[in-house]
Amino acid sequence: MELKDKEYTLTIYGAGVMGTAVLSAILKSNISPAPKRIVCCTSRAESAEKLAKAYPSIETTYGDEDNFKILGESDVIVLGLKPFICDVVIDKIGPLMKDKILISLIAGWKIERFLEYTPYVSRVMTNTPAKFGCGMAVVSFSEECKQFEDYIMKLIDPIGKALQLPEKNMDAATSLVGSGPAFCLLMMEALTEGGVRMGIPYAIAKDCAAKVMEGTAKMVMETGEHPGALKAQVCTPGGTTIGGLLVMEDKGVRSGISRAVEEAANIATKLGQKK
Ligand SMILES: NC(=O)c1ccc[n+]([C@@H]2O[C@H](COP(=O)([O-])OP(=O)(O)OC[C@H]3O[C@@H](n4cnc5c(N)ncnc54)[C@H](OP(=O)(O)O)[C@@H]3O)[C@@H](O)[C@H]2O)c1
């Protein structure tokens, strides 16, 4: 398998929420060598029409007949199907992916499950903020796919940030990265409601909560400091913050969040088990 000097086709098979986030990253990536054709496959005609309108430079197909045809013509495949759909169609689409470069976005599905079809498998776990260019992606590679590491990392990086991780950590990353936005949103909702409870209008409380979370994340990224050290800097002795933090500890917020990551990771492991 060689992409250099080839007029190759890249297909996003299952171009829903995550597939289109990766599509946006690919379109921004100035990847070299660049695909000659980018095709997005969906199940329904209306999804294909919407994509064609939103991304005029790409082709779209829908329905098994046309999707299977394009899959057979593709060189690089981004698999963005839901896990239960993939379970149903894998016996049909697997042989069409023979020896292609496969980038799987599917939660819980191990690299090993695709190796009977192609040796060039990478597994990417990303999240919905990728739609806005501030997503996180962790990437693992099969042994044979390591020769395409650079290419795949460059393709995925415009999602926001992309890091490599051994596959043994992927279920944990599925939880931390994939489900993480939902966990943060629950915290954001709780912060907002605390503000509302104390009399701040909802819209303002929501903006405050969102900006506090964004700013805090930025502070951690830019300083590289341990979150605990930054937290200690905000705690005036006898002050408001330490008072609030002690209530959070009494209520088990810290372990609640950590255990949520554990639970989601365990569920991700079960998702990937062959039925
Ligand atoms: N959403 C998240 O936050 C998130 C986070 C991390 C990982 N993931 C993983 O990303 C993957 C995709 O999730 P998603 O949220 O993007 O799903 P989604 O929005 O439902 O997108 C699925 C896509 O697959 C298409 N599709 C369904 N059946 C098909 C078939 N038989 N042939 C071809 N295309 C078909 C759908 O087409 P139609 O639009 O026409 O139905 C849709 O474009 C999942 O495996 C999930 O585990 C998701």
From TrEMBL:
Ribosomal protein recorded as keyword: no
Residue span, Pyrroline-5-carboxylate reductase catalytic N-terminal domain: 11-108
Its transmembrane ranges are 7-27
Binding-site residues, NADPH: N67
Q: Give any single GO term for biological process.
A: L-proline biosynthetic process
**The organism sits in which domain of life?**
Eukaryota
Q: Name one Pfam family in it.
A: P5CR_dimer
Which InterPro entries does the record associate with it? 6-PGluconate_DH-like_C_sf, NAD(P)-bd_dom_sf, P5C_Rdtase_cat_N, P5CR-like_CS, P5CR_dimer, Pyrroline-COOH_reductase
Q: Mind telling me which SUPFAM superfamilies this protein's record contains? A: 6-phosphogluconate dehydrogenase C-terminal domain-like (SSF48179), NAD(P)-binding Rossmann-fold domains (SSF51735)
Q: Which residues bind NADP(+)?
A: T42
Q: In which pathway does it act?
A: Amino-acid biosynthesis; L-proline biosynthesis; L-proline from L-glutamate 5-semialdehyde: step 1/1
Enzyme Commission number(s) from the entry: 1.5.1.2
Q: Which HAMAP family match?
A: P5C_reductase
Q: What is this protein called?
A: Pyrroline-5-carboxylate reductase
